[in-house]
Amino acid sequence: MRNADLRDEQIWLVVGSLMILATIALAAALIYTRDVMVPFILAIFVTTTVSPLVDFLVTRWRFPSWIAILTTLLLVLAALALLGVLLILAVQTMVYAAGEYSEQVVVLAERFFAELSAQHIQIDQARISAELESRLPGVITQTAGTATAIITHGFLIVVFVVFLLVGRNPQQHQTGFYAEIESTIRSYITTMTAISAVTALLVGTVLWMLGLRMAWLFGLLVFLLNFIPNIGSIIATLLPIPVAVTQFADNPWMILATVAVPGAIHMTIGNFIVPRLMGRGLELHPVTVLLALAFWGLLWGIVGMVLAVPIVAMLRIVLSQFTTTRWLANLLAGHLPAAEAHNEC
What we know:
The protein is mainly α. Helices cover 83% and strands 0% of the residues.
């Protein structure tokens, strides 16, 4: 018995080591090919979302396939063009405001240094001021560079969408786990898009009514960041703080309002509306979501964090179809083997 147990332990050790090595190799490959893989994955999600329109035009309205695909492609191009224009305007606004707000931050910092000096607290004021002047515009322009990279991926996304739509058969109805993947991803994307749009509209309107500069820009960032579960809403709530501090330096209540009111909107929508609309959702444990955000964020940056949840949801559905990997799918959903055995008893 001891020899058999020892042999099983060795087998599991070898399997575990191979899985770790395979994961490292896969991560390296994904990093190396991200300039192609990111647009391709985005194109798959876009195609999954708009494919029902192609099917409807072909099966119900009897459009030729090429006209249905062309019509759908024009709608995709219009949506991508609108997003691209908004991102370009956002980049221009951020770059234009970088110098102005960095100077205001330095002025506020000097006022803070004066208060510290009055309390006989010695600090290197010149060094800190120089760091603020040099680093703040860099942070803003780096963020602008990320948005520009997303725009440049648009062309590849369109190319992949064209080929994916042409390769589909509108007359063929998918069944099995492939149909479940399509339904899950389509439901997730459409629901999150609607929720993000409503949240962005509410937050942008509130910030505009408070008189905050670039309120529309923060509304756009809310729409984009809301696709990152849990973390995105927190980042979107905190982003207006530097602008609010520089604009409402003499009115702390206004600074508090620019954080508290959007935060209340995010909490209300996230805790009451999203669960009702999502239903069972993607059947992923919160810890799984956080780990997925960390893993794909390290690989592909912000875009990877946006794609993390639907990718892991697809992986869970595929793993659940095979007996040997079903335990891993249950683990992603938060169902521990011990808990399942207890429930069966």
